[in-house]
Design goal:
This protein is of the alpha/beta class. The protein folds into 2 domains: 5-151, Glycogen Phosphorylase B (Rossmann fold, 3-Layer(aba) Sandwich), CATH 3.40.50; 173-317, Glycogen Phosphorylase B (Rossmann fold). The chain has 11 helices and 12 strands. The protein has a 6-stranded parallel beta sheet with strand order 3-2-1-4-5-6, sandwiched between helices. Helix 1 packs parallel to helix 5, helix 1 crosses helix 9 (259-267) and helix 6 (190-202) packs parallel to helix 11 (304-317). The radius of gyration is 21 Å and the shape is elongated. The N and C termini lie far apart (46 Å).
């Protein structure tokens, strides 16, 4: 079947959007003469604008305006890859064909899929349940979405190409460390991070630090300590363009699992990704790692000294 107007909804996190880019690119190559519209969250907009394999961009506001902006396109196909959660505007979209992927929680083993399925069938032509509680059956998210498109005969079989972004910056830093609240947990404290910096500084490494846009009091206190005691550049809440260029200027990026890890993926940046030991790291390492990234080391979080040792050992591997 030929689709002239296609809509892809991925209005959740930055990392999820990045994992969907190879599928969007493959879709565009399969439908060169079709209009492809992306519906995304505002947090992903600056990144997505850097690519040319779509025709229109709609920022989801989860309201009637969003419904109107989508429905006026009179789509032949709508693919919703994002969870519904509270974004129920998706139930009121019009299209000749609508497919929804229901990503199940990786923590709950028992669900009443019959009730969920009956509800969703009111609004969608096809519903897929992506089970995430059996590690042996788990697929990487990009590969799962691609296999779904093939099974629905939306496009043909064949592995999607890796999506890269080339910014052509010169290297200015040996290490970039991206700080989020996922660093500071019950077994890893501010003093542990300070000890890590001291180890790296002894290597005479040039380091920069970036933070999430939402800066907790603990992180603010940590960055204040760093500014007082070290000659390290801390970029607090940088703009997206500033942040992505700093990543590109760095030889190796050290980050907790977050959107930063997927930015490293599209920049093909050497990376150490730390996965929360309390958050089913084996599942996330398999399902949610940056797609086809080279020079990647994945480690589990740990108590302060042990995690620092893991990081230093990982740097030696890269």
């Amino acid at each position: 079947m030929k689709y002239k107007r296609i809509c892809i909804i991925r209005d959740d996190r930055l990392g999820d959007t990045i994992l969907t880019l190879p599928v969007i690119q493959k879709l565009k190559k399969s439908y060169l003469n079709s209009q492809i519209t992306l519906v995304i969250s505002s947090i992903s907009a600056e990144l997505v604008k850097k690519f040319d394999f779509f025709d229109e961009l709609i920022i989801s506001k989860n309201n009637l305006e969003t419904v109107k902006n989508i429905n006026q396109n009179k789509f032949d196909l709508i693919l919703n890859f994002a969870p519904l959660k509270t974004n129920f505007y998706k139930c009121f979209l019009k299209s000749k064909r609508k497919i929804h992927i229901s990503f199940q929680s990786r923590y709950k083993k028992k669900r009443n899929k019959l009730i969920t399925n009956a509800f969703l069938k009111i609004f969608f032509d096809k519903i897929y349940f992506y089970e995430r509680n059996d590690l042996k059956k788990l697929n990487h998210q990009t590969e799962f979405m691609d296999s779904l498109m093939v099974s629905e005969k939306i496009y043909k079989n064949g592995e999607p190409n890796k999506v890269y972004l080339k910014l052509k910056n010169n290297l200015n830093f040996e290490y970039l460390i991206h700080l989020s609240d996922r660093w500071l947990q019950s077994k890893y404290h501010q003093e542990d991070f300070i000890n890590l910096l001291e180890i790296l500084i002894k290597k005479k490494s040039k380091i920069c630090i970036t933070t999430d846009l939402n800066l907790s009091n603990d992180l603010k206190h940590l960055t204040d300590q760093i500014n007082e005691n070290f000659k390290i550049k801390c970029y607090l809440r940088p703009s997206f363009d500033k942040w992505i260029n700093l990543i590109d200027q760095s030889n190796i990026v050290i980050t907790a699992e977050s959107g930063c890890s997927h930015i490293c993926g599209i920049l093909n940046k050497k990376s150490i990704i730390i996965y929360d030991k309390q958050n089913k790291p084996e599942f996330i390492m398999k399902e949610y790692k940056p797609y086809k990234i080279e020079n990647l080391v994945q480690i589990k979080s740990d108590i302060g000294e042990k995690l620092n040792s893991k990081i230093i050992s990982s740097l030696n591997q890269l």
